[in-house]
Structure formats: structure tokens, C-alpha cells
Amino acid sequence: MKFIIQRDRLVQSVQDVMKAVTSRTTIPILTGIKIVASEEGVTLTGSDSDISIESFIPKEEDGDEIVEIKQAGAIVLQAKFFSEIVKKLPTDSVEISVENHLQTVIRSGKSEFNLNGLDAEEYPHLPQVEEENVFKIPTDLLKAMVRQTVFAVSTSETRPILTGVNWKVENGTLTCIATDSHRLALRKAQIETNASESYNVVIPGKSLSELSKILDDNNDLIDIVITENQVLFKAEHLLFFSRLLEGNYPDTSRLIPSDSKTDVVVNTKEFLQAIDRASLLAKEGRNNVVKLSTIDGGVIEISSNTPEIGKVVEEVQSKSVEGEELKISFSAKFMMDALKALEGSEITISFTGAMRPFIIKPLNDESILQLILPVRTY
Amino acid sequence: MKQMYPKNGRVILHVDMNSFYASVEMAFDPTLKGKPLAIAGNPEERRGIIVTCSYEARSFGVKTTMPLWEAKKLCPQLIIMKPNFERYRAASMGMFDILHEYSSLVEPVSIDEGYVDITDSYEFGSPIEIAETIQKQIFQQLDLPCSIGVAPNKFLAKMASDMKKPMGITVLRKRDVPHILWPMQVEEMHGVGRKTGEKLRYLNIATIGELAKADEIVLKAALGINGPRLKQKANGQDLRKVDPESASEFKSVGNSTTLPRDVSNQRELLQVFEKLALQVSSRLKRKKVMAVSLGITIRYKDRRTITRSRKLKNPIQQDEEIYKMAKELFIKHWNGNAVRLLGITGTDLVEPEQAVKQLDLFSFEKDAKKEPLFQTMDLLRKKYGAKIIDNAGALSEMKLTRPKIGTDTSFNKDFLHSRPGRGNKKEKDDIS
Fold first, then answer.
1. B contacts of A378 (beta carbons < 8 Å)
2. What is the pLDDT, as a whole number, of residue B250?
3. Taking the CB of residue A152, how many other CB atoms lie within 10 A of it?
4. pLDDT of amino acid A189
5. What residues make up the catalytic site (chain B) (predicted)?
6. B368–chain A Cβ distance below 8 A for any pair
């Protein structure tokens, strides 16, 4: 194997596939990156067996030569060293060649590295995914849907299924739901699909976060293929495979209240800043609790009291308050997470009682919803 | 009188009630005086061990922690009584009230002993005069004997009070340390238990004097941070202050019980946890605190003891929650061997005003169901004051009809917080 490649393209691809490589793996060869040079270009692969990422660098693009293939072949190089090396090489082009057996030489300018490689034949094959049922989403929409839900997944392994995001496809609509059982995030969108298809799967939250980091911000369509135990995201020159979580996701639809007793409309930014300030005194580790009370004249009072530190009270003028008077306490962190995930300058918060979940939505937008469970004070 | 006090440094008394439970019983029923009397746990079961006994019983060789059957063999006419904690508590309060007359710096250590810092109490006389007055007053008013140590710090005061019993007053100055403390065996030193004693012996340290001169690095290696501290004490140094609040800053609430026999049946052991959870829960409620961490203690048949604890997402107080956590910890850490003792401890305590429970999407209905009740309680409190209503479990211990103690071999310090004028100070009626 021997090729000469533009360094910035190589660095970008290595960084992408590195997202799947971990040093903690039971399969030693997975600490490496597989490099395959063919007539078409160079393919890099990284995997931790849950996530596998394949990045392709074409021989040429828009008439520019990116890779000059001198001899086809394949090698696996230690990811930790290889990624650091390519990042720091001195010139814009890099020559990589496998000489006698697995000895790999990396040359750039006057720098030359000799790395011991591993046999590419030993590298596990990527999952075979039948590409019959494909649906498409614009990249930026996919990234938004991930961002608006994935923060709410559980980080605790007590209920493993909750560490994933529930993806449901039904009647041309994709619904993403995440909950750690204390808050829930839901986002819906229309997708391009054969109307007959329906899926209900759970994708590990970590996979979606990593995917989102790799994808560029553009509105190119991404192909998504879901099989029984894998999901594949296909962008230009990029394949992203993830294992699905096994088990049934709890049915959350009946847990989301449909009616409300108190509805409050506020300016998102003003409200977020008020919560942020109130949480300054709410003690970390004690659930970071703030209290919201409706008072006369459509004013909302946000307060927090930590006896050892001090207290804070502030008022937010709402656009409207309808329904019953209310006092409710909740985690400031959950509220801020939710508010940051929402788009729109005004939001509606619908309460159904001080001990029941409440819902936050942008005004006049049914595609997204954030739900938070309050805390009970004694 | 000021000249009787040191210019720098402090004067500290350690007041130690002599065979407290037995003495209280004798004060209560004077016909018991002069007879061998022992207070014991449940006489029918194995844990029926002597908790304390009168000096008359001691002369027969009866000792604390001795099993009942053994004591009876030594002294067949021994009178055995179950503990009456209510009585001891009242007597203890009386004792501490007397101590408070001489200084505001009184630190209760347990039901029957406490430290008093009398550095600024010269108006009552010299240190020895104060000790004599206190001893006399406790004897005349409560009919109870005590021993008092007078010293420049807590450690020496404690050692001193131990030297003459009953009704002794011992002064221990720093200059007395080499000739009084140093010849003593290390095990006689306060703070050195059986295990520490063994470790010291292993280092060829047999007397307090040898400990005083021992190499600090060696001690630290063998005993950890406690090593250098013990050495300081052996040299008569102890910088700890008499802290009246130390008893009220209770850091944990725990109950443990020795099983009537060694048990390896999981169901039986879980039943014990259920009972312990109930006890811990009711004590948490009485103290009006919640636990943020929960731990369990398992002592196996071979006396090997493990403790395991966990930090909780939500503070707990209810017995079902405590039991659930204890059960989880137990199932995870129990090795299946026969168990001699089980315990549950709640630590990291918070006041309910600060405690919150993050509700759960899949179980919030359970809490929501109680919402009308909480609202009503809130309303009542607003209208009639904070004390108008509370959960039944929050009833003060004193008002409960004879709590079932006696299964516990140790006594807890809870009662020290219900002293009038102390504790409970955070409760204020809200008459707005």
C-alpha cells in the first residue's frame, strides 16, 4: 500500500473516525484505525463495536486531486499515535506506505515516522445493512432533532433502555423521545419515506451525540437505514453505524398530560435568565431547586433559598397567566436544559398541579415539547 | 479566685456518672441500695448482657457486657432489671442542668458523661471547689454518684475522672503525665480500643509512656491519622474544644441489632432490616431530618464486619424507602454467610426544609395523590402556626408511650436535643 494524500483531508477524516475509537475495548485491534487504499480513494474506519464510522476520501473532488494512489492495500494503525502524528506533520501532503510486512512509513516534508501496523485482515467487518428501507432527513434537521432530545437521556445504568433516544417512524413522521424519568424531551418532524414504513427503535444517546458532532451543518439529505439491531446514517463520504438498544421503550404518550390547569406565556430569554440567576444560590447536589409562584397582575416570581448561603427573589412579567394560582418547585438545571433546546422567542408552560409534570412548548409550535417533573418539597 | 486558674490555657471538668443506670434505679427505689444490681438487655435472649451493674455486683466479679448466665453464676442473688430509659433520660437531663449552672460550655458526650469548660467560672470558686460543689449537688439533688476529672484538656480530664470511682475527684496536670499516665498500659488510655491496642503491642508499645515517645511516622503507618493524635494525647496534649453544639450536630442516625442467633436465611435477615428501617425512620422523623446517604452494617459469624453505603438521589425518611435501599445494598454485598449483627445508618442529614424529592415520570402519581393532604397541612400551618399539624411520626419521643427499646444494646443521644431551651430553636410559629 502506498499513497500520497492532502494532510487536511486526512486529519479531518481521522478525527471523524476517532469518535468511534476508544482505548477501553476488549478487542485489541479496535484501538486502531483501518486504512484501505483502492483505485477510488482512501477509506478510514474506526469502531468500538457499538459505533462504527467509515470515512471515505475520494481520489479527486471538483477536479482537484486529493489522493494519489501508488499501490492499493490496507493496514491498521494505532489510533492514538496515528491521529496525533497526522495532526502535527509539517507539510500539506503526507505519504503513507506499508513497507516490508506491517511496517508503515509516514512521510511529510523532512519528517519520517515508522509505525508498527496490524494486519487489516484481522479487523472486524462492519455490519452488513440491507439498504431496502431508507428514509431521508436534511442534515441540519437531523442535528437539531438530536440536540433537542439527546440531553434528556438517562446517564444511569439502572434502566439501560433510558440511555437511548426512542425513534418512531409512523405515517411519514419521525418522533424522537428521550427521558431520564425526571424530564422528557420530544421532537417531531416530517420525513421523506415510503408512507407504509413504520419503526420503533432505541438509539444509544452516545451514538447520536457523536454523529451530531461529525455531521456538517448543511441541508444535504442523510439516508437512514434501520434494521433489527443496527441503524446506519449515510452522508456523503461517511457511513455511521450504531447498535440499537434492546428492549421496549416505555410508552410515554400516556404520561404526557394533554390538559392543563395553569398556562403561562413568557419571553424565553427573560425567563431563562431569571432561572439562571435564581439557580446561582440553589445548591448544586441538592437538586438545584428553584420555586415558581404566580402572583397578581400576570407576574411570575422565581425564588430560591439556601439557608447557609442566602436567598434570591425575582419577578418576571409574563405575557399571560391563565387558570389556577400555582406554586411549584423544580430543578433549575432541567429547566435551563429545556429552554435552551427550544426555538422561538416565546414559550407556553402548562402546569397540571404542583406535583405533576409540566410542559414547555414554543408558542404555536407543536413539533417540540419539553416535559419536567417538579420536585416535592417537604 | 482567678489566681487559681491558669493564665493561658483552660480548665476542663469531665463528669462521669458512676454505674449510671444502676444508680438511677437505686435512687428511684432506695430499697435496692447496697444490693448487687444489674441492668441487662432482654434476659430471655442471647443478647441479654449486662449493660451496667452496681458496685456491689462488681465486687462479685460481675462486669459490663458479661452474659447474664455468667453473671448469675458469679452472683446468684444478683437483682436483674430491664432498662428504664425514660428514667435515665430524666436523670441525665437533671445532671446536665446542674452542669449548666456553672458554665455555658457544657458538651454532653453520652447520657451519663459530659465535659464542662470552667475556665471563666472563677466566680464559683477554684476548679476543685467547683468540682466538689457539682459532685455534692448531683448527689444531694439527684441521689446519684459521679466521678470528676479536673485537667487542662478533655483527654486528661477524661483520664482523671476514671481514676477514682465512685465519687472521686482527681486533678491531672500536665506535669503529672510522666509519673501518672506513662506507667499505665496503653489499653487503659481513652481512645485505645482492643484493635488499636493490638496494633500498638505489635509495635512493642505496651505503656502510655512508650506511646508518648514512639516514632510518629511508624505510628502513622500503623494507625493512620489517629497514630500521631494518640501520641499527642499520651504526652498530655489535646487541643479539642468543649463544644456545646457537638451533640446537636448529629451526623448520622443509625440502629443496629445483634441477632438472637446466627442467621443465614435471607428472608429472615430482610425481616430484621425491615424492623431496623422502621426504627431509623421513626428516629429521623423525630429529629425532623432526612438522610441523603444510607449505609448498612453486616457483622458475620466470624465477627468480620463490613459497612456499605450509597448516596441517594433523593433524601429519604420513610421506612419503606429506607428498607428498599438497605435491601438493595444487602443483596449486593452480602456474601451468604451467617450473620450476627445487622445495622442501618442514615448519614448526610438535611432538614426537611432543604430536602426535596425529584419526582419521577413513572411514579409521580403516588406523590401527587397526597397533594391535597400536603395542601391542607400547609393551609393549617399558615393559619394556626407551624406546630399545629405534623405527621404522626414526628411526635416527640417523650410523648410516645414507652418506646420499645431494649433490643438495642446501645443507647442513642437523641434525647440530648430535646432539652428545653436548646435544640428545636429553628422552630418558630408563623403567625402571619
1. 290, 352-353, 355-357
2. 56
3. 26
4. 94
5. 113
6. yes
Give the pLDDT band of residue A114 (cuts 50, 70, 90). Answer: very high
Over chain B, what is the mean pLDDT? 82
Using the predicted structure, report yes or no on whether residue A57 has a pLDDT greater than 90.
Answer: yes
Which residues have CB under 8 Å from B282's CB, separation 6+? B319, B393
**Chain B contact for A286, CB < 8 A?**
yes
**Mean pLDDT calculated for residue range B167-176:** 93
Contact partners, residue B254, CB within 8 Å, separation at least 6: B280, B295, B297, B343, B344, B345, B346
As a whole-number percent, the residues of chain B with pLDDT over 90 amount to 39
**This prediction's pTM:** 0.61
- Total residue count of chain B as it appears in this document: 432
Give residue B1's pLDDT band: very low, low, confident or very high (50, 70, 90): low
Tell whether B112 is in a known binding site. Answer: yes
Domains defined along chain B, listed by start: 20-84 (3.40.1170.60), 178-235 (1.10.150.20), 252-358 (3.30.1490.100)
Whether B377 shows a pLDDT value over 80: the answer reads: no
**Residue in B with minimal Cα distance to A257:** B361
Active site residues of B: 113
Task: Please name the residue of chain B whose CA is at the shortest distance from the CA of residue A256.
Answer: B361
> What is the pLDDT averaged over residues A82-104?
93
A268-278 and A332-341 are packed helices; what angle lies between their axes, rounded to 10 degrees?
150
* Residue B4 pLDDT class (50, 70, 90 cuts): confident
Which domains are seen in chain A, by residue range?
2-122 (3.10.150.10), 131-253 (3.10.150.10), 256-372 (3.70.10.10)
Does the beta-carbon distance from B359 to A355 stay under 8 Å?
yes
CB-based contact (8 Å) between A77 and chain B? no
Query: Which residues in chain B are closer than 8 Å to A183, comparing Cβ atoms?
Result: 361
**Residue B16 marked in a binding site:** yes
Give chain B as a 3 state SS string.
Answer: CHHHCCCCCCCEEEEEECCHHHHHHHHHCHHHCCCCEEEECCCCCCCCEEEEECHHHHCCCCCCCCEHHHHHHHCCCCEEECCCHHHHHHHHHHHHHHHHCCCCCEEEEECCEEEEECCCCHHHCCHHHHHHHHHHHHHHHHCCCEEEEEECCHHHHHHHHCCCCCCCEEECCHHHHHHHHCCCEHHHCCCCCHHHHHHHHHCCCCEHHHHHHCCHHHHHHHHCCHHHHHHHHHCCCCCCCCCCCCCCCCCEEEEEEEEEEEECCHHHHHHHHHHHHHHHHHHHHHHCCEEEEEEEEEEECCCCEEEEEEEEEEEECCHHHHHHHHHHHHHHHCCCCCEEEEEEEEEEEECCCCCEEECCCCCHHHHHHCHHHHHHHHHHHHHHCCCCCCCHHHCCHHHCCCCCCCCCCCCCCHHHHHCCCCCCCCCCCCCC
Contact A307 B364 (CB under 8 A): no
Contact (CB<8Å) B358/A252: no
Instruction: Tell me, yes or no, if B394 comes closer than 8 A to chain A by beta carbon.
Output: no
pLDDT tens digits, A293-310: 998 888 999 998 876 678
This complex has an ipTM of 0.82
Find, in chain B, the residue whose alpha carbon is nearest to that of A305: B354
Which whole number is the average pLDDT over B135-154?
A: 94
Interface membership of B249 toward A (CB under 8 Å) = no
What phi and psi, each to the nearest 5 degrees, are found at residue A293? -130, 140
